[in-house]
What we know:
This protein starts with a helix and ends with a helix. Strand 3 and strand 4 (140-153) form a beta hairpin. 49% of the residues lie in helices and 19% in strands. Helix 1 packs antiparallel against helix 2 (66-77). The protein has three helices and four strands, in the order ααββββα. Strands 1, 2, 3 and 4 form a four-stranded antiparallel beta sheet that branches. By secondary structure, it is of the alpha+beta class.
Amino acid sequence: MRITPEVIRTQRRKCGSSIIELGGMGFIISVMAVICVNVGILVFAAWMNDAACRDATRAASQQSSAENAQAAAILAAKQFGADTAIIGHPVVLLDAASFKYETFPDDEGKPQHDKGPRVSVTTRLNTKMPCPFIFNGTQFTDVLVFTQTYTYPLLNPDYKDTGDDDIDPALATQEEDSVGTESAAADADGADEDS
């Protein structure tokens, strides 16, 4: 094959278009990699905040007072996260709108179980993206805040009066019946032994 100026020009055009294609593909792959990293961090941060809120609410629901519930929720949330520059540490919000320990006390200060004593806990987690992106508007941002709220029933609400009147009358009757049955059975055994 004879090398002519026309063949040289054709080879240069092919080489130039290959470089442009390679550069374009490299740019697209870089953008996709950054998006994948951002999405991965967002998914992990959302999962961690959700798990921290769920565990904090579960720990708070097992306490008998609002103060103990707050302390238990904070301690449970601290088990999640390492407070790094990218993903922060889940924080339990303690304001009145975010942390609610509701026992619905009656006139005597006892929880009303028919109203469902419950605790609601809200956690917040700040996440910083490696690459800023447009979110909810036209400004670039690199910080995204996750909040999560869970509500659990109270397992051991605070009883201000722990007298005998807290026992359910139906349960007390069942206990008396079982005691009476056991004593009657013991008397029958004693009568059999005598005869």
